[in-house]
Amino acid sequence: MTPIRLMLMLAALFLATPILPATAFAASDEEIYNQVDQLHGHADQLDKVLPEIRRAFGDGDSRRLATYSSFPLPVKNNGEAYDINDGADLVKYFDTLVTQQTRDAVAAMDYGDLIVNSSGVGLANGAVWLSFVCADDACKDGKWQIISINNQE
C-alpha cells in the first residue's frame, strides 16, 4: 500500500469517527476533590459548606447566603455589575440581583460539575464562585466563601 493511499484511508476513518462532546468525560467526585485540595487545600471544609450553599440558593435564603459571602461581593446581572457591601445589602437586594435561573442552577448542580481553577471553585458553569478566604497570614484558618455571583442569562 502506498503512503498516500494509507493517508487517505486514515483520513476517511478519522472523518467517519464520531466526535464525543467534552462533557462525556466529566471528572469524578474524587478527581474534583483532589483538584480542590491541590490548588486550594481545605477540600474537606468545602464538602461541608457546599450542600448548605446549594440549599440556600435553592431556597432563596439570602440571610444564610450572607453568612457564606465575602464582602464586598461582586454581582453581575443583566449586563450590569454591582458590589454588595455587606450582608444586610445582600438580603435587601437578593431578589433583584440573583436570578431564579442562577438559584435553580446552583441548587441542581452535581459535585462533579464543579469548575476548579487557581481563582477558586465555580458552581453552575461559573454562575457562582467560591474561594477559601484565609483568616490569618499562614492561612491555616479560614472558610470557604462566595466571592462572586455571575447570573446566567
What does this structure look like?
The longest helix has 17 residues, at 43-59. This protein has a six-stranded mixed β-sheet with strand order 2-1-6-5-4-3. A hairpin with a 2-residue loop joins β3 and β4. Helices cover 44% and strands 22% of the residues. α3 (43-59) packs across α6 (100-108). The chain has six helices and six strands; from the N terminus they run ααααββααββββ. It is an alpha+beta fold and 153 residues long. The protein has helices at residues 3-16, 29-39, 43-59, 62-67, 87-97, 100-108, and strands spanning 73-77, 80-84, 115-117, 120-123, 128-134, 142-150. The radius of gyration is 21 Å and the shape is globular.
Summary, kept brief:
The chain is of the alpha+beta class and 153 residues long. Helix content is 44%, strand content 22%. The chain has a six-stranded mixed beta sheet with strand order 2-1-6-5-4-3.
Please describe the structure with a list of short key phrases separated by commas or semicolons.
alpha+beta; 153 residues; 6 strands; 44% helix; globular
What is the CA-CA span between the terminal residues? 55 Å
Rg over C-alpha atoms, rounded to the nearest angstrom? 21 Å
Unreliable spans: 1-25
Overall geometry comes to: globular
How many distinct helices? 6
What is the strand arrangement across the widest sheet? Answer: 2-1-6-5-4-3
Specify the helix fraction band.
Answer: 40-55%
Q: What's the oligomerization state? A: single chain
Described by strand count, sense and barrel closure, the largest sheet is: 6 strands, mixed
What is the strand tally?
6
Report the average pLDDT across residues. Answer: 86
Order of helices and strands: HHHHEEHHEEEE
Structural class: alpha+beta
| Strand composition percent | 15-25%
